[in-house]
Design brief:
The complex is a heterodimer of chains A (about 400) and B (about 300). With about 400 residues, chain A is an alpha/beta fold. Chain A has helices spanning about 1-25, 85-90, 95, 110-115, 130-135, 185-190, 210-215, 230-235, 270-275, 280-300, 305-310, 320-335, 345-360, 375-380; strands at about 70-75, 100-105, 125, 140-145, 155-160, 175, 200-205, 220-225, 250-255, 265-270, 275, 280. In chain A, strands 2-1-3-10-4 form a five-stranded mixed beta sheet, with helices on both faces. In chain A, strands 8-5-9 form a three-stranded antiparallel beta sheet. In chain A, strands 6-7 form a two-stranded parallel sheet. Chain B is mostly helical. The chains are: A alpha/beta (about 400), B mainly alpha (about 300).
Chain lengths: ~400, ~300
């Protein structure tokens, strides 16, 4: 009896020791990016912008009084949607700018705008404009400092034989839309076509996969060009045994019907921006962060295959084919950037706010400086090379079964 | 001395050890048979109401089999073929991966298990400490047990993000959430177990003027062992569930939770990978359960022999 108790105790202790020893090993699954060769597009010597009172163009350890550690909250798990940032780290652009950037992965329960709004939260975050505006209206002091994606990546897909070619054709159909604030473009497009969701057609909250659409439970489904649309094309059509083809689908692009809302941008707290770190204004740090990030995106525009490799190194189970597709589509959402990458399109900003007001997700015009372009402009001014991508054209990417 | 060396050391126990081995073999066989039955039912259903069968076990069917019924729930997206799920495990995780999906998931399972196991040990220790406290103080038991029960009515899915924000996105959060799910069965079973000794044994100890520590160590804890192991077996599987629930929604990378998120996203075009991940989660739970069961057999082997005799 006594003996058995002792063995039990020993087992417990051994268990504790074993598990404790184990944790040191492969805890950090994410490979730390090492500073490899400097990027092709090296930031040329600083060129102080005379019109810029808040920040100079100097970056690097000396300008920032030593490397500054900043956290960057992403919207989702690593994928090519964030390729430019991964590239900036992998190529040592952040390090050159005097920054030690840590990426925080997103997930289903991670709302970047809430994480960043926390006064002790990460310095920067990446999110969709309407959601951040809602957070701002609720009191978060978040400000959009760089509008990276110039256009919306959301589309509404249906099968070619459904006869749905424009939002008007949704009448009487089952139309899928995501929840969590991703459904506003569908609602806006419907209202512009004179249809009221719920009365003129059935609006179905869909999952973040395309199963219901492929099963025929939905006549139309919301999809991101870089993700869900690819998933359909990577799936075998059970009736033919071949992959679905683009010709099989009708795609309504929210950009074309005037219902697009701005998506991925970089946010920061106003209170943090007004503060300083090591005697250097945080606005200056933000400029350096944006500059290196922009250079990362420029690099991914010019070297998409290399960037896909960098993304694939972030996770062991990302499908190569799918990430190639995504990289191409993400580039198309950024480029061309008529006023330079990260500079907000005022017209689309107004459209985003207007749709938010019309769909009653915002009760009033965003107060104060919800959008700032001065920091992004200062960041751009220090970059040599093509920051607008006027000649950008989408590549043809081969679709692989299962996105593998 | 461990159970493995006993048969060679002491002849008298060979019979007992063999019975145990036979028992293990029988339960493994039963498990395999049940799995096979499930696979047969699964495939039969697909034969009757699934998608078109163009191949079976990698062999092309010509002409393809057209199931008489078309039931959405049984099509190849919702319910992939058994061999596709198993096949996915042994194919490279991605086109360029040098590791099979099985190896990648095993790696993820070990990461998840580490958090779960630390939480399990932590939860078991806290659970046992609470049980000892409650057995020695009726007042505390009456005052606090309702809160212990109430703690388990908070859905873990609501709690996990808060813990992660508080502790950070790494295995300590996973361990705390696992511990939270683990301590409860141990506390409840511990209270019963510690109160289970024959009153005459307690009276005898009192007649020796034994202190509460001696009574606890020599009478209560040994008597509580079978109760505790029953609770620990429940806790072992619960700790795995807790670890996955902690990882999945909160962006913790490296474990099965992340694998579920990513394969869920790819479900449309590769459902077999999510099924394979679910299979791996179940296997991890069973493995941890079996580990506790083995510990139980070792610790309680004298008692089992008494029962067998």
């Amino acid at each position: 009896m006594k003996h058995s108790w002792r063995i039990f105790t020993i087992l417990m202790v051994v268990g504790l020791v074993l598990t404790a020893c184990g944790t040191g090993g492969s805890g950090d699954a994410t490979p730390t990016a090492e500073a490899s060769e400097p990027a092709a597009s090296e930031p040329a010597g600083s060129e102080p912008a005379a019109s810029e009172p808040t920040a100079t163009s100097d970056c690097g350890d000396e300008a920032l009084s030593g490397p500054v550690a900043v956290d960057f909250q992403l919207q989702w798990v690593p994928q090519a949607q964030f390729a430019g940032y991964f590239a900036a780290k992998d190529l040592g652009l952040y390090e050159e700018a005097g920054l030690d950037v840590t990426f925080l992965d997103g997930g289903p329960d991670i709302a970047p705008q809430q994480v960043v709004a926390d006064p002790n939260g990460p310095e920067f975050g990446e999110g969709w404009v309407p959601k951040v505006l809602v957070a701002r209206e609720e009191g978060a002091d978040l400000v959009n400092i760089a509008q990276v994606f110039q256009r919306s990546g959301a589309v509404e897909v249906s099968f070619a034989d459904s006869g749905i070619e424009s939002p008007e054709d949704w009448a009487g159909k089952k139309v899928g839309a995501w929840g969590f604030g991703n459904e506003f473009e569908v609602v806006a497009a419907a209202r512009q076509a004179g249809l009221e969701p719920g009365t003129d057609f059935e609006q179905v909250t869909q999952n973040f996969d395309m199963v219901a659409f492929l099963n025929g439970e939905l006549d139309a489904a919301e999809a991101m060009t870089y993700n869900e649309l690819a998933q359909v094309l990577e799936t075998e059509n059970p009736d033919t045994g071949e992959l679905y083809q683009l010709e099989d689908l009708n795609i309504i692009d929210f950009n074309e019907v005037g219902a697009a809302m701005l998506q991925d941008h970089i946010m920061a707290r106003e209170s943090w921006l007004a503060d300083e770190t090591n005697g250097v204004s945080n606005e200056q740090i933000a400029v350096c962060f944006l500059r290196a990030s922009f250079e990362g995106w420029v690099h991914c525009r010019d070297n998409p295959d290399e960037c896909v490799e960098i993304v694939l190194d972030q996770g062991t189970i990302l499908g190569e084919g799918h990430q190639h597709w995504m990289m191409n589509e993400i580039n198309a959402l950024i480029w061309p950037s008529p006023d330079g990458i990260g500079i907000l399109d005022a017209e689309l900003r107004d459209q985003t706010v207007q749709i938010s007001l019309d769909t009653e997700i915002l009760t009033a015009q965003p107060a104060g400086d919800a959008f700032r372009t001065d920091l992004a402009q200062a960041a751009l001014d220090g970059i040599d090379g093509d920051t607008t991508g006027d000649d950008f054209e989408k590549a043809e990417v081969e679709v692989t079964p299962g996105g593998e | 001395m461990t159970g493995a060396t006993a048969p060679f050391g002491r002849r008298a126990h060979v019979g007992g050890a063999l019975t145990t081995l036979g028992g293990i073999a029988r339960s493994i066989l039963a498990f395999v048979v049940v799995m096979l039955l499930i696979a047969i039912v699964w495939e039969s259903a697909k034969w009757i109401g699934g998608g078109i069968w163009r191949e079976a076990f990698g062999v092309a069917l010509d002409p393809p089999h057209m199931p008489p019924l078309r039931i959405t729930q049984l099509n190849d997206t919702n319910l992939p073929h058994v061999w596709e799920v198993i096949g996915a495990l042994f194919e490279p995780a991605t086109r360029r991966s040098e590791f099979s999906l099985f190896a990648v998931l095993l790696d993820a399972a070990i990461f998840t298990w580490r958090g779960a196991a630390i939480g399990f040990v932590l939860g078991a220790a806290i659970g046992l400490a609470l049980a000892i406290l409650f057995v020695h103080s009726g007042l505390l038991e009456r005052a606090l047990v309702p809160y212990v029960i109430a703690s388990q009515t908070v859905p873990i899915i609501a709690l996990a993000p808060m813990v992660v924000l508080w502790v950070g996105r790494d295995w300590p959060s996973v361990a705390i959430i696992s511990a939270y799910l683990t301590f409860f069965p141990v506390t409840i079973a511990g209270i019963r177990g510690l109160k289970s000794p024959d009153p005459r044994a307690l009276e005898l100890m009192r007649s020796y003027a034994a202190g509460w520590k001696a009574v606890l160590w020599k009478v209560r804890l040994p008597a509580a062992m079978p109760y505790l192991f029953t609770a620990l077996k429940i806790s072992a599987t619960a700790s795995i569930v807790g670890a996955i629930v902690a990882e999945a929604p909160t962006g913790i990378a490296g474990g099965l939770g992340r694998a579920i998120i990513q394969f869920n996203q790819q479900f449309t075009s590769g459902p077999e990978k999510l099924w394979a991940t679910a299979f791996m989660c179940a296997a991890l739970g069973i493995a941890f359960f079996a580990l506790v069961r083995i510990a139980e057999m070792v610790v309680l082997r004298n008692r089992m022999r008494e029962v067998e005799a």
